[in-house]
Amino acid sequence: MHDEAHKARWEAFTADILPLLAACAWTERNAKRLLGPQRVRGGAWWSIGQTHHIERVPIGRIGIIATWNYPVQLLGVQLVHALAAGNRVVVKPSERAPRTQALLLELARTAGLPDGTLDALPATREAGAAMLQHEEMDHLVFTGSTTVGRRIAEAAARRLLPTTLELSGRDTAFVLADCDIALAARTIWNAVTMNAGQTCMAPRRVLVGSRVYARFLDALAPLAAGARPRRLIDSDAAAACFECARGAVAAGGRSLSGVLESPRGDALVPVAVVDCPADTALFRGEHFGPALAVAPFDEIEEAARLHALGAGTQQLATSIFTRGRAVPRELLSALSCCTITINDCILPTADPRATIGGVGESGWGVSRGAAGLLAMTRPVHIAGTSRRVRLPIDTPIPSVASRLMRACLWTYGAGSSRAGVAAPNSINGSDT
Question: Domains of the chain by range and CATH?
Fold first, then answer.
């Protein structure tokens, strides 16, 4: 991971390996319960003699197109859940982390998987395109950018191939007036700089209540001033992130550290642009690196409007810093994400209990947690009826039919006085 994705040793362990280990342990403890038969209760009164339950069966062969930014954590959890659910898996490793993911797959094979359970394709873009056209699959999981995800969705649709798409977010951190300012600044800056800012659920902008805006900048300033260069995946990524920050400064924002350093190859000094105009690429989150747009708001409604303007439909995880336990309703109604973290940013999303799902241009389907494990199965509803205790299937005589129809409507809320069911002269053409 250090060689291919430029991760520091501690960060590689804590952000990639440790969440995968936790997911393995969680799956061992919970898979049998979650994947076992589930009794369905509370049926209709006329379902006398019936029992209903859900059996979870494997989907079949799961295809995974892996990503590079968290090459062990993301691929590893997807692999564990697909295999634990009983599927066969074929993986197209990322061309940016081929050795890392080849080692992960080899460890999976030597753990005791039966032959034919896990296959790997070459770690090339050409292999990904061929996989979409020719590989036998019953479901496809892709993690990556919205641009590539859209092309994959189009190719999968031509095959009627179901997909789970984990695409990028452009989310917001909200700093409310009652929060712990120092905690908010430290946590948000850590989220923006970890993994060189190459985290889909990291905040791209922070909106701060105007009453505490100056205090927040005071807390954030030493962190930005002391930032050291971080290596991105390549020089193009560093240059694109820098151009977004430079454009925001040219439009009227200012670097909180007082400087804006050009990248040196793939290395870029993290930057916070304060008073960032909302019509800039940086504020809209059109970057994937250690740069943060910072802006104030007066009322919650304004914060919601700025969030919608910046994030659009690419929302994965929104962070809210507050001493309160509940999310303000004016804010909650404006959020389209599936994950909200309070007084934290990224760390809770790595918990094995957490389920991740995209909305709009952030993708569809879910992974991780109980819902992610169940998504790797096909639910089969099985209904059994007693041979002795069961509803009669013969048509009753008209008078009895009329009374039964009135009773049914009364049971479901119509009330006998409003049922309006006349006794028919015949039912289905028969007087019996």
Answer: 2-167+369-381 (3.40.605.10), 171-346 (3.40.309.10), 401-432 (no CATH)
Please name every residue paired with 59 in a beta bridge, in sequence order, or none if there are none: none
Across-strand partners of 175?
Answer: 208, 321
Crossing angle of helices 73-84 and 18-35, in 10° steps, is: 20
Using an 8 Å Cβ cutoff, are 355 and 372 in contact?
yes
Look at 419 and 304; give whichever has higher pLDDT: 304
Report how far residue 209's alpha carbon sits from residue 39's, in angstroms, rounded to the nearest whole number: 49
Between the alpha carbon of residue 48 and those of residues 52, 292, 377, the distances in Å are 11, 61, 30
What are the structure tokens assigned to 413, written together? 């809320």
Task: For residues 321 and 316, give the distance between their C-alpha atoms in angstroms, rounded to a whole number.
Answer: 17
Under 8 Å between Cβ of 65 and 128: yes
Of 401, 397, 392, the closest CA to residue 419 belongs to 401
Q: What is the pTM of this model?
A: 0.91
* CA nearest to 377, candidates 75, 86, 163: 86
Residue 40 pairs in a beta bridge with 52
Q: Is the pLDDT of residue 52 over 70?
A: yes
Alpha helices in 42-170 (DSSP H): 73-84, 98-110, 125-134, 146-158
Does the pLDDT value for residue 430 go beyond 50? no
Residue with tokens 């951190």: 173
Q: Which two tokens stand for residue 75?
A: 């691929």
CB 34 within 8 A of CB 111: no
d(CA 363, CA 347): 21
